[in-house]
Amino acid sequence: MTYIIRTHKLTKAYKGVEVVSDVNMNVKKGEIYGFLGPNGAGKTTVMKMLTNLVTPTGGEIEVLGKKLIPSSFEVLKRMGSIIEYPIFYEKLSARKNLELHCEYMGYYNKSAISEALNLVNLVNIENQPVKEFSLGMKQRLAIARAIITKPDLLILDEPVNGLDPLGIRELRDLFITLSSQYGMTILISSHILGEIEQIADTIGVIRKGKLLEEASMDIIRNKHVEHLELSVKEQTKAAFVLENELNIDNFRIKEQDGLIHIYDNNISQNDIIQAMVTQQIEIGSITKKSKSLEDYFLQLIEGGNQHA
Amino acid sequence: MRSLIKLEMRKMNIGSMVLTFLCINAGIIGIFLLFGLDKDARAEFLMNYESVFMLMEIFIVAAFVIYASVLLSHMIIEEFRDKTISVLFMYPVNRKKLLVAKVLIVSMVTFISVILSNIIVFGSFAFFNSNFHYISDPITVDMLTERAIRTLLIAISSAGMSLIPLFFGMRKYSVPATITSSILIIAVIFSSIDSSTNLYSFITIPISLGIVGFLIAYLVITKAVKADF
């Protein structure tokens, strides 16, 4: 397995306060890595460290097979990025901004500019100065700028901010195309799971500067999506049956609601009903609940806020 | 480095720079013509070549050092203030070189402007003098050679001096601080000690200020290269 980004105990502290602490991140070649976290979790700071805009106070970064040090800049040639919000020379036209970008990147394919503008659906406005653009248009232009040189690694910090739902879908498709056709590795951050759930191969969840979980979406889906909700009066008895008759130990009793949540995916509703009936336990209802990923991540993100 | 300078120039509006240069020169020539109209002013300012040269030097250096602060604001201070510098710093280019290119442009523009303006303004003065006879003494070759050497030194020192406002402007990425500081510097060095002497008349002062300017640019760049964005 080749890794495009690896960080080891990456830490950044401002005046002694750690905003990113001990982040070990692994982004595989060719994948779309969704970087999820609430506002102020440290996503942007991590991305700034990956692009060398911010120097870490601790830990190591390896990008595209090279160790990143404060003075390295060659590796930036193979990266495209949007950090924080779209920044341009506002007085210059969209095209001129992109031309300058290509020159600085050392990329001289003249047709690439029009191609990139077409990909993000910005046409006929390339000669307008950027200051006349709306936020959504600037965002599109920023994405065009990031992908124009067909980089190996694309770092996108909340790239769909300020876009309408249709635009979000367009860009989602674009990111999938870039990943599948050009083999780009994409690191994309968001504070809204729905935005990246459908495209990400791997998700990293960050909160208060700490990487809480990093796992492939497939595993997360299997692990957390479904459970059975069983409504019974005699919960203790039912629990005893589950444990001893059916050999299930992956369940949780919610006393105040009179419910039992069963997380074992291998057991069928029929088996449970049969076992309960045999033991003469009255079942109020049994339903299959699919807990959305959203809930799961909210729980993960808010987990630390509960003072138990 | 040359390609970096070229790229920087593409972001600038060369046309308006040339226009500014021409306006400044026209303004200075205009002032001399006004002096020529008034009898008292003519007696005080246009009595000999030394005083003409001194006035020329004050006007030209003052104008272009202040103009340089405008350029610094556009090319450096605003890039940091508007964060476009963070886009530049994500390019596969040495940060130091990026900033040195910017500073070099400002210095070079000042250097060239000071030299050209001296030639243009003095040329015009000589032309008007031949018509209106402000000064009847002939210009000697010695005078011109001495003047040429001083102009060269002044141009070099102005190139450095024009960078001093960076020190004030880069503290809070403030355009007003950059421009105000350049005006203050000019005001201090050109305040008269007596009618024919000011701080700038002693060649060591412009030269030391020039060196200070280059040092400031060096320090500002070293600091900016290490900063977080």
TrEMBL record, chain A:
SMART domains in the record, alphabetically? AAA
**Which part of the chain is the ABC transporter domain?**
5-233
Say which domain of life the source belongs to. Bacteria
Keywords per UniProt: ATP-binding, Nucleotide-binding, Transport
What SUPFAM superfamilies does the database record attribute to this sequence? P-loop containing nucleoside triphosphate hydrolases
Which one of the record's GO molecular function terms can you name? ATP binding
Q: Which Pfam families match?
A: ABC_tran
PANTHER family named in the record: ABC TRANSPORTER, ATP-BINDING PROTEIN
| Family membership noted in the UniProt record | Belongs to the ABC transporter superfamily.
User: By what name is this protein known?
Assistant: ABC transporter ATP-binding protein
Per the UniProt record, the source organism is: Aquibacillus rhizosphaerae
From TrEMBL, chain B:
Entry's transmembrane regions? 12-35, 55-77, 98-128, 148-168, 175-193, 199-221
Q: Which UniProt keywords apply?
A: Membrane, Transmembrane, Transmembrane helix
Range of residues in the leader sequence? none
Tell me what this protein is called. Answer: ABC transporter permease
Q: Name one Pfam family in it.
A: ABC2_membrane_4
